[in-house]
Structures are given as C-alpha cells and as structure tokens.
Fold these 4 entries.
Entry 1:
Amino acid sequence: MSLGVEAYNLVTKFESFAPHRTGGAGNQKVIDWLTNYLKALSWTVHLDDFSYQHYEGKFKSQTYNIDGMLLYYSVLGKGKIENPVFFRLDDGIESSFTNSSNLHELEELIIQKLVRDAQLSGCDGLILESISKSEHLSAINSHGAYDLNFPIILVDKETFNYIMDKKDFSISYEASVVKNQSSNILATCNIRKKESPFVITTPISGWFSCAGERGCGVSIALLVAREIAKYHSVDLVFANGHELGYRGAYNFVEAYEKKPKAVLHLGSCLANKNTDFTGICYSNNFKDISDNLTELGILTQSPDDNISEDEWVGESKCWAAKNVPMLSIAGTNHYFHTKADVTPSVTSPALLDRFIKSISKAAVSLV
C-alpha cells in the first residue's frame, strides 16, 4: 500500500466516527480507535482526562421550518425569540474588523457587539447567517467564557433569506450545561530514554464529519510521527476540546513537565484542496524548513516573540511558553466547519503523500 493510500484510508476511518464534537459518542470512538491503533504499533498510550461544561441546546419554531443551531454557550435555560436582530456575519468581517488576522477573534468581537446593540434596542435574540464560501452553514467555535446569556441562532443563507422577512415570528429554545469529562491521548515511542521528546500534536475534535479539518491532520500526524520516531523519542499528543478554546491542549500542557526538544503542531485542513495555509516557525533552521513548506504552497513566517501565544495559531498557542523550536501549520477553505467537509471533496492520496513527505523533512530540520 502506498503512503498516500494509507493516509487516505486513515482519513476516511476518522470521518466514519462523525460527528466529532468533544464528549460525544463519535469523539469517544476516535479516542478508542487511536488508542488501539497505536498500541498495535507498540506505542505506549496514556489517556489524559479533563473536565469541562458540556452544552446542549435546541430550538423550534411552531410556524416555520428553520434549520440551524444554537451558538454553544450563548444562552442557558428556556425562552422565546420573537423580536430578533438579523445579521450576515460575513458583512461584519468584511467591514470594520478587517485589520485582525484571527477569524475566531473577529467572530467573537462581532458577536459581542451585536449582542450589546440588540439588548440596547430591546431585541430578544440574534439570527446569524454564518456560512462558508460554499454557502453551507458554518459552525462557530465557542466556550463558556462568552458570558452572553443571549440566544444566538446560526443559519445558512437559504434559511436566513427565508425567515428574515417573516411576521408572527417565534422560536422557542432550551439550553443547559452539564459537567462532563473527555480525554487527550499521549502516545510515546521512547527509542532514546535519556533524551527529551519530540512532540507532535494535532487536535481530534471538531464540527460535523471534519474529514479535512481534523481527519487529515490526524492521518498526517500518525505517519509523520512514524517517520520522526526513527530518529527521536516522540510524544504524540492528540488534543481534545479544540472547539472549547483549546481546553484539552491547555489542560495537557499545564501538567506536562517535560521540556520538549521541539514541537510540531498540525492544525486544520492540511493536505486539503484549494486551501489557504499559515505556517509559523521558530527554529535556527528556519530557511530549510521554509523551503520544504514552499513546495506545498505554504508561506512560512517567523514569530517576533516566540513565547507569546498571540504569535501562534490553534493548539500551538498552548505550547509557546515552552520556548523550544516549534512549527505550526494550519489552513482554511470553503468546507471549513461545514457538513460538506467530507473526504472525497477535500483531499486525495497524492496530496496527502506530498504533505507527509514535506512535513517530515521540515520536522527533522527543527532540531
């Protein structure tokens, strides 16, 4: 079996456990699958448990058929929306917040401002058209720190246009949180017991099928780790709770007492078609690493302050304070955070093969 086909099969396997929300049945199946997969390869596997507040929310209109989702943690309890504000999220991103490079920060800023304005206007809810460029409903990462206590419903373009001019508008909602527990995975291949480990990390939770967003990263992490383990002791960390403000990764790193020799962070949408990538690298071998990643269409930058979380993306933020050589790669595309993110649409064996080989070379150059 070729490397690309092996990787592709891993992506489809990951997708098969969908949906992949933290703490859900699919998420647990992924943990079980990776644990068994790695143990079969003689890796030592440890589950790192953490607790969090699990959100459940639902809504219903007695009058209209509305397809969408409550923004997690936006509101608790029961209530009705009868006088909402309607807003197209992309309009806000393209106007007054274009100076920020962090999409999640943009969304959070816009939502907080919208809620304040809606409350001052006497409105009782917010209907957001949140779509990708493919016009599918695009989920938004959110966590308990929002502290909004205001119902927010995400809908796609068709639903937004359908309901925004309706009269006798009424939506009932119900939402709650319960204390829950999930796990990160630490898999160790310790070929040189006295040396510091080379950390390779990628998240495992996300929205819907997330074959490209997460599955490709998981597949690449497994196969790059196999290559790096020929030369270094490896700590392979599958972080959970990504959509909860990187809850799992922060929990793991806080308790991680080792000093890694280097960290490789594999973020969203790697080896995806038609994707805009971000590469950030702190290493004495920056040029060699940058040249390797250029082959993949990734323009790599060096952080001004490598120990500042603000210089990094995704779970690499959690590792910044370790002050070691680090490479973080992530991307976004039209299928990001949508139900359309399925394996045949986003990747191919040939693309996965190229990414695994180039990232392996770049990783070796980190130290």
Entry 2:
Amino acid sequence: MATQLSTHRQRSRCTALLNCMIEGSDRNLRRALDILRTAHWFEHLLFTGSARTAYALGKLIQPDTYRKNQNADRFNHNLWPKYAVGKHVPSAAVLDRAEAVVQDSRSAFDHVLFDALDPTQNIGTRGNALIRRTHPGVQHAIFEARPLMRGTFRRRSSWRRAASAVAAIGDLDAVAALVVMVREAAESNDPKRAHALGELLQRAFLIASLQIIAIVTGYELGIALEFWVMRLTTYRGLRYRIDFIEDAKAAFHLRGVIGGLDDAAEIGPLEEDHARTAHLILSGRWNEVLHFALAPVPVIESECVDVPLESRIKARQWEIRREWAWATLRSGKRAPFLPIELINRLREAERILKADAAASHQRSDIKP
C-alpha cells in the first residue's frame, strides 16, 4: 500500500469507489467492482508492458484509434485515460486486444478476488468454486492433498491451520481465498471464526503489499476490504480494520525490513521467501518488537454499545504494546525481552479498566 494517493488516477478511482459504496445500491456496488477490476487491469498493463502513460498504452494496444483526421490533426477516442480512472470499463474486444499485446492481462481483469468481494451475492455454496480459481499453492493449503490429486476438492479439517498457510503465501490469490473464508464464517453465524480469519486476512493483505501491483492499487483494494469484509470480523466488540495511515506505515517498514534481510543474504531473493519471512514477522515468530509494531491489531467496533471488559482490556493493551514497539524501532535499540516497564504499563491499564468497570457497576446498582 502506498503511503499516499500518489497519482491523479488513484485519487479519482478512490473517490468514485467511495461514492458508489456510500450510495449502496446493487447497481452502484457492481459499478464499484468494475472500477476495481479496471484499475487492476490497467495497472497490470502499465507495470508489465512497455508503455508508461494511458496515451502510450492506448497507442500500443489500439494503434488504429490514434490517427489524423481530414485536417491532418492527430486525435484518438480518449478511452484510455477513462480506463485509467475507472470511468469506462473495457469491452471484451479491448480485453482481447490487450491480451494479445500483454500476456495474462485478461486474467488480471477477471481475478477471482473481485468475485470473492462481490457484496451483491452471498458466498453460499460458491466457496470451493471460487477457491478453485486461485493458483495451486493456495488450493493445496486449503484442500486435502490426496483428494485434490484426484480432482476432488475437500477442505482440510483444521480451517485455522489452512488459513494460516494461505496467509503465509501473501499474494492476491491468498487474499481472495481468505475473503471467501471470512464471508463463509459470517454467513454461517460464526463470528468467532470470522474474527480469527480477519486477522489472517489483514496479515495476508499486508504481505501482498510487498508486490508492486498490490502497491499501486492498495488503497482501492483496502477500501473494498474495509467496507465489505472487515466489518464482518466483529466479535465481542472487537474487529480488525483497514487503517490506511497505520497500514501504510506498517507496509512501508515491512518492505524495508524484508529488503534489508534480502540485501544481507539472510533470506532468499524470491517473492515466496519474502512472503514467508513477512508472515513470520507478523505472526510474532521473528521478534516481538516487529510483531507488536506491524501486526494487525483488534480495535473496538464503534457501533458496539456494550463492549465486554476483557475486550476493552485487550484493545488497550495492544495500543500500549504498539506504542512501545514503534518507540523502540525509532530509537534503534534492540529489545530481546519485554522490559519490566512495559509489563507494568500493561498491568496498570488492566487495573484501571477493571476499577472503572467496578465503579460503573456500583453506580448502576444505586437506586434513585
């Protein structure tokens, strides 16, 4: 995820997305999906092809539309700048012509993530069919190996272990699969499972931000995840949330850490090496400072009226851990163990919240 909306086309797409989502009709929600698809497709063409502007891209893929008129003035149909900002959706013919020039661009437009996100349709029984459209790495993480070799798609018995393996892959196919799993849990009225999957989904999204194509459309995808999926992860007053400022800061630092480890030859140079290391960092198996600074944290759902005490304690203690972790990173000091000062702050926060809850309960018991 970029640290700011760095291009005019990105700002335009985000504005259009938010307007469609706020309006909320099925027509506008489908329009939002079209914006996402077109943005992903357009940025894939720019990143993979030789062109670097909408004009150059159009001239490369549709040279016949760039010509002189009868007055010898150059003109074109000006559709490519509209594709760039999501105002116009490419036709099947345009998608085919783009595919002939930039291989696999059609698959970027038809990526399974957009069908997994579609808020106008329940997942229902479509879950396995959607996951089958992901690459083999994701499928092997979710489906049992032997039946899969025979063409039978049977989920592994431990959804938590399967989801953790998917999060470690950390690409857009992994994000799509976890979106499916979160929505399945929500539709099954299992908020506890949806909450646990929400953490893994946000972790996979952060890891995916190491990829360039996810960086340039990170805000758009983040908006869609926040509006349509992360709100389903509420459990006992807590949920996971796409926080654009905090997530951008975490993604930027994560890329720096991974790059430094790669430069020092402490990890492999391949994308899967980077994703695996990022998963170890975000899951707390690398070191605690990076874990507390960068990992997704549960926050109190603002719409919940009565948040349980243990949830408020958990949220507050995560805030304290994150503050300490970022202060430690900025200082450049190494912290192999949690300092006693931090442990005391965590205990004091718990004591204060429990005392406040007890006092509030006592006041409510006093009859007028």
Entry 3:
Amino acid sequence: MIQKVLCISLGYEGGCLYYANKLIDNLRSDKDVWISYQTLSPNAAACKRLKIRGGIKNVVLNTLFNLPFYIVAIIKGLIYQRWSCVIVFGPNIWDGVFLGLFRLFGKKGYYVIHDGLLHEGENDWFHQSLTKASMRAASNHIFLSDNVRSLVQQQLGIVRPFNIVPHGIIAYNNTCLIQNEGVLKDDYEQLHPRFLMIGRINKYKGIDLLFEAVKSIDFSKIDCITIAGFFADNVVVPEYVKLNPQIRLINKYLTDEEFDSLMSSHDYLLMPYWEATQSGIAAASIGYELPAIVSKVGAMEEQFGSAAIYMDAITPEALATCIDKVVNNAKTYEDIQVRLRLKKQELSWESLGEKLKVIVDENIAFD
C-alpha cells in the first residue's frame, strides 16, 4: 500500500490560505487534503471538510463535539498506515492536536509557520500560546523566511529540523500586465502615478507613517493614494486625511476580485512597515510586477532582494522622499519592474511545490 501525505489547511481566507492552496496544488505527491467546510477558497483536491468555525462559542462547541471524530479518523488512518506524514498549514487552534498525533505514532509532522511571533496589535496570550504549543508538537518546521526561523529559535527557544519554502507569487487573475501602461512612456514625469497600501491595515504596517507623510507629499504630481483593506481597531484616521479628495479609504475585507482590480490599477505599493516577519503583499508586488516602496525590516530584503525601492529610515520624511523620487524618475520604475520579473521566475509555485516534495520525500527516505 502506497502511503499518502496528509495536508491539513483550515484557513478561512487571506494570504495563509492562498499559500496553502498553491503549495497543495503543486505538490506532486499522493495526498489527502483536509480543509475547513467554511473556507472561502476550497481546494479542489479536498477529500474531507472539517466543521470548525470562528467565535469563542463555536470554537468551544466544535472542539468538544467535532474534534473527537477527527482525532479518531486520524488514529485509524495511522494504524492502517494510510499516511507517511502530515503537513499542517497554520495557524489554527487544532494544529497542535494533529501534529501531536502523528508524532505519537512516530510519523513526521511538518508545521508551516508564517509568523512565529504575532504582530503588534494582533498579539494576545491565548493565540500566542496555541501557536507555541503547535510549534512544539511538530517534529519539523517549514518557514517562509529565515527571519521567522530566527525569531522562533532565538526568542521562543523552539528548535526543530527545518526547511524554508518562501511565499510564491500572488496574482489572482493574471492581470499583472494591464496596469497603467503610460508609466513606461517617455513623458512619465507628466503622468500622475497612483499609490496603494493594501491588505490588513494595522499600526505595525506603518499606516501612521503614511498619515504623517501625507503632509509633505506634493499631490499635484500624483493621481491618488488608496488605502484598502480592513482597518484594525488601533488605526485612527486623521481628519485631514479623510478630507483629502486624493486619498481613497476602503475599509473592508477585500474579495480576490477587488484585490486584483486595485493591484492592476495602481502604479506603486506602499509598505512602510514597522515590522514584517514575511509578507504576502510582497509576494503580490512580485506577482503583479508592481514596484513597492519598502522599509528595511524583518524579511523584506530577504523577499525582495534588489527588486524594491527601500526607505533610508522608518520615518514619514523618508517615505515622502521615496514617493517624490519615484514620481520624478521613470527609470526607477522600469529598473524595478525588470528585477521583479526575474524574481517572479524564482518564486513560481511549480518550483516551490517541487521543493516541498523533495523535503517530504527526503525525510521519508531517511526514516
């Protein structure tokens, strides 16, 4: 009997789910795929949908009445040697249970870790404790960046055999080449580029820096600044930002189609982050070939390499200076787009799926 790889991805939406779906799609191994029945992006290969929902009441009820059935199903599969290993694409509150069961039966449990330490504004004792427990339950770790690996091992003291499988490109509808075509024309200086901050809008992503930088930006040279995504509770929009007709505020969870439309209709991304273990928006910058203004924090340089415009400091003045620089220099845009296309080839999901297969196969062979 050929043993399969069990892939468990219980994400509901967002970059973590996108990463999981793409890797699962491109993992050329015999596999079973378990997903959440509530997911907005169900994987086509899914053979089992687990009943787990958000909210404290639902989580408690699902854990008490549904999780025991899934535990029995896994134990049965392990007894009958159905699976060689499990890959758990976190984070979810049940991750540690599934990883612990495989470890109990002497099987490898790979835990995919996006952020070992939760971000400022998102951190709370309960979720951080669950994340740490899951990391400890795993026999092996898969990180998206060496920066995350360093944080987990040095600050949390959790060390396991590890591999790094970076975030592949994000481009929902392959419209990355239909951005404002005028930006590549010789009269670039007469055009008015559009700037975009997108994703979950949180304090750690430097939204306050952007609000301050607005005071120094020459709006006669740009079309607009769009800030799009769900605004965290710690984000307070100043009145002068709300009143600026060239600043668009879109405070909502974005659908894939809305995300695609915004990425395809702007010329630059704004990423003045205070911290960033790794970033799905960076993967989108590469996927859409959309140049980004980026702060040098966390894994940003690891993800982008030379394919970004880096701020000299994490200050409003440095952000405004970068915006002014790109507005007046068409060559900067062209140079970064060329580098993004090269980076895009490195981060194809086909090559990353093959890398994951090699990791799993090598460890099985070692066992």
Entry 4:
Amino acid sequence: MMKTISAEGNCDYMDRALREKLGMVVFIAAIILMLVNPLRVTNFNIEDADVSTYIIAPMLMIPVLAYFTFKNGITPEAGAVDIALGCAALLAFVLLTLYLQFLLSYKFMSYRIDMLIFPLAIFGLATLLFGLKNIQKFRALILYPLFASTFLAPVLLNINAGFATLNSVFVYNILHSLTSQVTYIPPITIHAGLYSIGIGTSCAGIAVFLALVLFMLPIAYYADGKLKDKLFWIVSGLLLLLLLNFLRMASIAFVWLNYGPSGTVSYVHSFVGILIFYVNVLAMMLLLPKYGLSFSKAAKPVRTGKGAAGDNGLMFLSCLLAVVFAVIYFAVSLNYLSLLNISPTILRRASGTIFRPDISSGLREVTLPPR
C-alpha cells in the first residue's frame, strides 16, 4: 500500500531542512566573523624558532571543524530559555574580553587569551541557535580552540631544546655512517674538516609537529572509521614528517660540511621545511583510504516529529542575535591590531631569563645578572 504525503507534511520537511541549513550557515558565518581580527594578528608562518606559531593551524581549522560538526545534521531547537542562556554566554564573552584586555595588558595577546576564552563564544552560539539539548554535539568544537591559545608554549619551550639535541644526534649518526671524519660537539654542533653546523631549534622545532597533529585532528574527527585507525593515521603522519625532516637536515648538513656554506644551501634551507610539511599533509590525505578511513555525504534531514513552523519566529530571532553578537565582537577585537603582541618564546616565565636569537642554535638562553 502506497503511503501518501500530505502537503502539510511536505512543508514540515522542507521547513526542517531549511532550518538546519540556515542554522548551520549563520553559526559558521558568525564564527568566521569573530575570527577575522584574531587571525589578522596571527603569524601565518609556522616557525621552528618560535614554538607559539603552531596556533595558526587550529585557528584556521576552527571553521572547518565547525562545518564538520554538522555532518550528521543538527536541527535548531532553541527555545526562549536557550536564547536567553546563549545571549548571556555571548555577553559574558564580550565583557570578559574587554576586562582581560585591561587586566593583562600585552599578555592578553602574547598568550592568546582571546582564544583561551573563545570556547565560551562557541558555547553561546551553539546554545543560542540549536538549544542546550544539542550542546553535546558541539563538544569537540568547544574544546578545540583551547589549542589555539599559547598556554602550551612554556611547556614546549622546555621540550624544544631537548628535541633539537635529539635531532642533532640523529643527524650526526647518519653522517658518521657515511664518513668517519665527522665529530659531534654537544649539545647541537656537528664538525667536519673546516666547517661546523648546528642543528638547533630553528632547524628542528617541535611546533611544526604539534601544528600537524592539530591540523589532522578535525579531519580524523570527520572521517568515517574506527578510532584506532584514526589514531594510527595521525601517528603515521607524525612519523612520516619526522623521517622527512631527518632526511632534510642530514642532506643540508652533508652538503654544508663537505662543500662549505653557500647562498644556495641557505636558500633551500629557508623554504624546504615548510614544503615538506605540505607534502606530508598531501601524502596523508591521499593515504587516508589505506587506513580504512573515508568521507561520506552529510545526512539528509529526517522527517520526524511535529512541525517546527510555530518556532520560526524564535529561529529568526536567534539567527539575528547571533549575527549581532558576532558583529559586536568583531568591533571589540579591532583593537587587537594595536595591542602589543610579544611571543611567549621571548616572554619566559622563569625570573631573570630571556631568549635571544642565535644563528647556529635557533635560541640561546641568556641569564640576566641580578639587579
């Protein structure tokens, strides 16, 4: 027996589909608008010598992860209470931003406190548009911006020097297997004949590897497959980047030690690292099916439950309020461009210690005399 669909039921389905698309578009657009000024003050280059530059990867991936969040569809179900709660969270976010800017001065941007409190904005937008009932579907997106803050930088600074030493030892062992004329001078110097080279943090910083993980996480989240396969895919990407970076450093060191410093070697060294990063990303994307992972089409809206036509007024109100708060934050964050932004690589928490650039070791620690 053929089931008939009434005009009222068809309108209900179309209305629900339109609401999902409208909610998604407004949500992602609001996030992008709120990220414009924070991105304008962020270094788009991931630098080995500055561990804090890894944050550009999660910042660029926040809108992407926001889109991925709607893979299985999320129907806006915000009621009056949800709208009030979402507005309260967004208002608190704006006021907290203004207060912390005044309280922390240059440290606000140096440690990217703007991104540390950004989860509050996402919580507010999600509650305002989709209701507290659906908030669990935004858990990954709410937590992810925390990694766009530089709160990890002090920890990475302590790891970075040791990681550079590990790389220099590995490069030395490769070169020593080719010729016995190579000697290792701890912690980072390799010597052969008339020339020496230092494998410092500017050659093998840990920031690039962290940026790769934070880039791959949203893709693994969106892909269909088992959790263990997703973790294996991410670990494989890390190992591949580590291998390619070892080969890069060993090749440059071999040429440098055998033929001496040259403009050509320095020029190749200046860009080949980031080239390897992109090659690694492309390779892992192409290899994704080999790990049992795939991308499926987003689910279509399901025609269940009662009609939502009576809630259209609240839906449009929540969309309007989301845009209004996004514009307000955009205006508030315009002054980010004028705030002093000192990298945590320079601002070390340890008393009386600063970092100064050094050609051979990337960063050289200098202890100031007591006053």
